[in-house]
Design goal:
By secondary structure, the chain is an alpha+beta fold. It folds into two domains: 73 residues, Alpha-Beta Plaits (2-Layer Sandwich), CATH 3.30.70; 201 residues, Metallo-beta-lactamase, Chain A. The chain has six helices and 19 strands. The chain has a seven-stranded mixed beta sheet with strand order 5-6-7-8-9-10-11, with no helix packed on it. It is globular and about 55 Å long. The structure holds iron/sulfur cluster and fe (ii) ion. The site of iron/sulfur cluster has 16 residues, from helix 1.
Length: 288
Amino acid sequence: MANTDLSNPQNVPGPVFVDTTCIDCGTCYHLASEVFEEKEGASRVMKQPQGEEWGGVKRAIVSCPTNSIGLQEKSQDFVNAALDLPLIINENVSYCGYTSKDSFGATSYLIEHPEGNILIDSPRFHPQLVKALEERGGVSLMILTHQDDVADHQKFHDHFGCRRIIHRDEVRTSTKDVELIWEGSEDLEIFKDLKLILTPGHTKGHLCVLYKDLYLFTGDHLFVNEEEQMLEASKGVCWYSWKEQVKSIEKLLHYDFEWVMPGHGGWGHFGVSSLEKVSELVERIRLS
Ligand code: SF4
Ligand SMILES: [Fe+2]
């Protein structure tokens, strides 16, 4: 639990606080941007919540990977905090919350698919989330975009019996027993409306997931800058090859999608402008 003795001195006074164990993963200031902000490499409470803003705060409390967000006085209300997670983003696509420290607070998503529910990357194996997933029909498949965001995949597999898929180049000790290891580089159609696209760069076997030609789940390949409404890629967290990553960004110009759902930070709905956003990013990289 968050520790009041470690409360960040930058918090504004009031019931909600962030402590100094924050790893600045960005989850809270995406979920409750009216309340939390990044300052000097950590999250702080910039304004105490009011009314509906409490919804985002509750989601942030249970989703913080390091339990760094707390309340000065515990409220009974928080026993049932954030029962709306996984939170529907659009249609049958939801945000899971409950991020894991093991994946630096990576975002995972749920697709309630007619062929069985799909988790994209792994949230924390938290009993409240597990119950919510059970109520929505369990999990049939986990798609792991790359080695960094696998977190509690084994626990989800053991509990739900779901198959898992990862690219061969991302397999590490903890994923060596994954059921489906993708060896190729051509797109892999899992279902008629869902395919995997190899996007090396951030890591060698990183993949993106394209669903219904509408939703592109980008792992750590692309991020959304919500303030500027543009796409970003990070050379600073490119572990394999920036040159390959740029090629993989250009490759996305050959697909259709309207939503960009990254592995960190917020998602974005760019509609028919999505490819323009990719082109703009390529241009910015070229000029940098
Ligand atoms: S969710 Fe937790 S770790 Fe992430 S930025 Fe907020 S307080 Fe820090
Ligand atoms: Fe990563």
